[in-house]
Amino acid sequence: MALLQISEPGQSPQPHQRKHAVGIDLGTTNSLVATVRSGMAEVLADEQGRELLPSVAHYTKEGVSCVGHEAVEHNVSDPLNTLSSVKRLLGRGLADVKTFGGQLPYEFASDDGGMPKINTAYGLISPIQVSAEILRKLAGRAEIAFDNMLDGAVITVPAYFDEAQRQATKDAATLAGIKVLRLLNEPTAAAIAYGLDEIETEAGDQERIIAIYDLGGGTFDISILRLSKGVFEVLATGGDSALGGDDFDHAIADWLRQEMALSNDLNPIEQRILLETAKFAKEELTESEQVEIEVLDWQGTLTRELMYSLIDGLIDKTLRACKRSMRDAGVQQSQISNVILVGGSTRTPRVASKVAELFGKQPLCSLDPDQVVAMGAALQAEVLVGNKSGDEMLLLDVIPLSLGIETMGGLIEKIIHRNTTIPVAKAQEFTTFKDGQTAMAIHVLQGERELASDCRSLARFELRGIPPMVAGAAKIRVAYQVDADGLLSVSAKEITSNVESRIEVKPSYGLGEEDITSMLHDSFSHARDDMQVRALREQQVEADRMIEDLLAALEKDGAALLDDNERQCLKVAIHELTELRGNTIEHRVLARQIESVAKASEEFAARRMDASIKTALAGHTLEEIEKG
User: Fold this and answer.
1) Hey, which residues are catalytic here?
2) Which of 74-78, 194-198, 506-510 has the lowest mean pLDDT?
3) In CATH, 528-617 is 1.20.1270.10
4) Sign (positive/negative) of CA torsion 467, 471, 474, 477?
């Protein structure tokens, strides 16, 4: 009798069929790789037993000489060729780098796509290439541990990463030869790492609201999640993709520069020495009340309280983001059941105490804040690669910023709103503006403001081959689809002819000057002005349409259907509307003028309709008309 081998649902029945997957936390300061063994997530160490891999790569004329701990040794001796904190540069443009690039001792250049590149001994290197080297090193560590090739990886990204930053991360993984199973938001990964048992057992079957406070080396995220019966639902997310522990270092380094009476114009070696000293002092003050500093022939003391005065403003920025996210999620402080601390920068005691004060409860920190994200990603990778059933857990992430399309008048029509659960697909119908229009330009935008010029441009493409029709007759269905990684694809289709065009949005890496946080801040502070501007633009579009239609009608039928006096009155009304459209800033005034011109042209429109019907019926008998 043959034996039938059985296995748990979703798991491989034979050991050799098990696939090798990992979770990777690609960090600003340090990166990690983790996997699942015997049902438990664990971080993989290198040959020396070191779990953290510094996110640093060193370049020579021949290329990459080393990555990680070995590269850190070149920080001071060769700062221009030792590249660190590049996660802050992913998905950003040269203009953005200039706003904070002065803190980094590099020489920046740009390619045609706007992506910043760093001038090294090997040549121009992009942040994607550096990130790929770090990912390749982590993948190599995993393959040594498995003694086999990787089948895939879940790579974590800050929840506040936008389209360009997510795509840049995915590009880096592709360059490193890694199959990306999913891009997972870091706060969600942390919640997975803490697991259903630790969080849910306290509440039984009741749902719980969890706040994930994630302060890393270069980014800050706050996410509000609802956990109920295995479903992780992200209610709201916020943060700053250019704020983290690196900024603590820069604040301390700036204090050192002032104490040492140095100028702002430091050479790269001096910059690096001050930053390394500041980082050392910050870490020492995690355990001590004060630290003695000796740097560049200067000696002094930095106390914990003095450091707090230097970084409190930065911590307060994170707390304001927390309050905004709670408002977005529609929850009160008292409804938050647990607060989870993530990221190495939360080791600073001041951060933990201020977070506890804001939420009114001590945060969970039983897992290493440096490792928790990689561990959660590994657990998710185990499900996605097929080694474990995912039935007991469902992840519902959200997009951080609204996605829309530019319409007439330079307005943005939002199709998918921020904090919408992903994956998601939504569509909306639009039409043509001019008679005989055979093409339409589609401008894909991201942001919260009402004008396209105030939002971020993601992509442009054209829908061609639209059958020529009168204005407004064509029906163009524009569909937006966001996948589980938060990446967008857009399609446009003319319904009657089935003409279609589509694009997978692969944004240029050049961001505008303002990052996502300021975009949201602007949407709040300019909300009233934006509403008024939008209302005015809408009326201006309506005025343009009316003026164009009336002028065309007068040209075609004015002489035949109107006497000289009637034509002159209508021309005066059109002229007044044209003047007002260009000069008024009051949408209500313009709306009243449009209504006035519409009434003045009613008789002309009626005569044109009658003439059109007579022309259509000419030469036909009543019997022919009744028969159809």
Assistant:
1) 25, 87, 186, 214
2) 506-510
3) yes
4) positive
Residue pointed to by tokens 């005066």: 572
Instruction: Identify whether the C-beta of residue 60 lies closer than 8 Å to the C-beta of residue 81.
Output: yes
Q: Residue for token digits 């990964």?
A: 189
The answer to whether the CB of 270 falls within 8 A of the CB of 192 is: no
pTM of the model: 0.63
User: Mind listing the pLDDT tens digit for each residue in 278-309?
Assistant: 999 999 998 899 999 988 888 989 999 999 99
d(CA 224, CA 235) in angstroms, rounded, equals 6
Three-point CA angle 210, 211, 216, nearest 5°: 140
Alpha carbons 206 and 36: distance in angstroms, whole number = 29
CATH number for the region 15-244+311-397 comes to 3.30.420.40
Q: With respect to CATH, is domain 399-525 assigned 2.60.34.10?
A: yes
Single-letter residue type at 559: A
How far are the Cα atoms of 99, 249, 253, 262 from residue 270, in angstroms, in the given order?
Answer: 20, 14, 10, 10
Nearest to 340 by CA among 244, 496, 225, 263: 225
pLDDT digits (tens, 9 = 90+) for 397-427: 677 778 888 887 788 888 888 777 777 888 8
Q: What is the pLDDT of residue 7?
A: 44
CB 282 within 8 A of CB 307: yes
* Nearest alpha carbon to residue 468 among 442, 440, 492, 435: 435
**CATH of the domain spanning 245-310:** 3.90.640.10
Side-chain-facing half-sphere of 468: CA atoms under 13 Å:
2
Q: Which residues in 305-332 are b (16+ Cβ under 10 Å) and which e?
A: eebbebbeebbeebbebbebbbebbebe
Q: So where are the chain's domains?
A: 15-244+311-397, 245-310, 399-525, 528-617
Instruction: Quote the pLDDT of residue 490.
Output: 86
Dist. CA 469–CA 486, nearest whole Å: 37
Report the side by side order of strands in the sheet with 220-228.
Answer: 336-342, 208-215, 220-228, 231-240, 394-398, 421-422
Tokens standing for residue 152: 């895939």
Instruction: Give the side-chain half-sphere CA count within 13 A for 331.
Output: 22
